[in-house]
Structures are given as C-alpha cells and as structure tokens.
Amino acid sequence: MAAPGTATATDRDREREPAVFAAADGLDAETAAFVEAWRRFSRATQKAKARRFDDGTLSLTQALLLSGLLDEPELTVGALAERAEVSKPTATRMLDGLERDGYVTRRPCARDRRVVLIALTAEGERALQARWRAFCDHLERASRRLSAEERAAATPLLLRLAALMDDF
C-alpha cells in the first residue's frame, strides 16, 4: 500500500483516463476488474504497436500497414489501409514517412492515373521481415514466461476475445 499522500500507478492512471473510470464506477467488482485488465492490456498493445526499436526496424503499426505487400507486389493506398484497418489519411501519412525513409515507392497506376500504387523497396522488405522476426521472437519470450497451463488457457481466451472485439 502507498504511503498517505503518495500517488500509486493506478491513481495516476485514473487521473489520466477519468472517463474510463467514471464509466466503470457503476459496475460490479468482477466486471470492473475485467474492464481494468482490458484497459491495461489495450494500453500495452497500443504502446507496443507504436514502439520503434533501436535497430531502426519498423514499428508494428508500420509493419501491419505494409504486410499486404508481402503477398502482392503492389497495392493501392486504400487496399493497404483496409488490410491494416486504418483510415486512408492515416495510411497516407504513414506512407509519406516510409517513402521518405526508403522503405516504399509510389507510382501512378497505368490504367488510372488517379490511383497510386505502393511497392516495397529491397530495404523495405528487409525491414518488414526483420520487424516480424523481432515480433515473433518477443512473443516467444513472453510465452516462455507463462506456465504451460497459462499458455493453454490464454490461447483460446485470446481467440475468444478477438472474436468479441470483431463484434464491437
């Protein structure tokens, strides 16, 4: 327990996100605990998606945007945005930086010059592969920190939660 007058991590979280906690105030204890666990997991996931690593690899969000280009040599901004579940303006802003950094190229479509096609450069493909390798390595290390029972319980639970999120 924190000393009187000392803010705990939970208190600081409540100060930063009062709307979440105000909405949870009327919940029973079990549901409120679930909401808090969900919030913490979501926050950690968002931080991980935005994080770039010191080795210069892509962020997870950038990798998600570009992953369709591992299956197709060129895709439109709209197709990449749809696959990554981001808006077209967000995809465009991300692609501006990725093009500037030499990870992708843009070219007009020969059939419709209003359409812009995106392709990975060799450096972009290398960076994308490195990002997914690092991500899988990280998940492997994380899974080893769980007991066999926790891993066995987590897998179907994560799949179920993902399905529930699809219904949001």
TrEMBL record:
Annotated source species: Conexibacter arvalis
Any one Gene Ontology molecular-function term assigned to this protein's record: DNA binding
Q: Domain (HTH marR-type): give its ranges.
A: 31-163
Q: Which Pfam families match?
A: MarR
Which InterPro entries does the entry mention? HTH_MarR-typ, MarR/SlyA-like, Tscrpt_reg_MarR-type_CS, WH-like_DNA-bd_sf, WH_DNA-bd_sf
Tell me the organism's taxonomic lineage.
Bacteria, Bacillati, Actinomycetota, Thermoleophilia, Solirubrobacterales
Example of a GO biological process term: response to stress
For this entry, the protein name equals: DNA-binding MarR family transcriptional regulator
Cite the entry's keywords alphabetically: DNA-binding, Transcription, Transcription regulation
Listed PROSITE patterns:
HTH_MARR_1, HTH_MARR_2
Q: Is GTP-binding one of the keywords?
A: no
